[in-house]
Amino acid sequence: MDSVALVRGPAQAPDTYRCQRCGTRQLRDAVQSAGGFPCVTCGADLHVTDQVTYASLGARMLSLIVDGAVLSAGYVWASFFVALLTPFDDRGYVSPNATFAGSVIVVVVLTGYLFIGEALGQTIGKRVCGLRVVTARDWGAPGAWRGLARLVLAIASLLPLGAGYMMILFDSERRAFHDRVTGTRVIDR
Asked: Which residues are CB-neighbours of 178 under 8 A, at least 6 positions away?
């Protein structure tokens, strides 16, 4: 079996560890520093490290590019699907109501993708880049409300020439503006 490092949680919960391979939280009262123990889910041989690898600006930007590609493909697919189902009037034009309804469907689907990804801590882009969003409190997934706030603030972080993301360069935990406000961290899985 592979040897996988555990990422120790915050100081408030020092006995909580997360397997970097499968993400399962491990609760141990006393972890042997010299030895390891098997992960209860995937069986990987685990050893403890206090080092957490925070995601770099480059990795985060690459995950944004991947998410942009996924969203673009989703938009094209959803638009095509809506066009197939859109009724035409007697002159062969698409009715304005159908166009509006199709646009709403596309926006809802694409926003749902981002919202669910943020709430669970991983969009497809983050997964491809090996990143995960965790809360600073318990190192779990952000959840629905925090994910929604993070999504809205991440968009705001991009607007002033990416200034919210540039904070990553000056923060020891590589937190962007939206990470600071929502109490999240982006770590390497």
From this structure: 149, 150, 153, 154, 156, 157, 164, 184
The yes-or-no verdict on residue 56 having pLDDT over 70 is: yes
pLDDT at residue 180 is higher than 50: yes
DSSP state of 95: P
Any domain includes 145: yes
Tell me, yes or no, whether 163 lies in a domain.
Answer: yes
CA distance 140 to 131: 13
Q: In terms of residue numbers, what domain contains 9?
A: 3-49
**Identity at 158, one-letter amino acid code:** L
53 in the Ramachandran plot: left (φ > 0), alpha (ψ -120 to 50) or beta?
Answer: beta
Q: Token pair for residue 150?
A: 């993070």
Between 144-158 and 96-120, two packed helices, what is the crossing angle to 10 degrees? Answer: 110
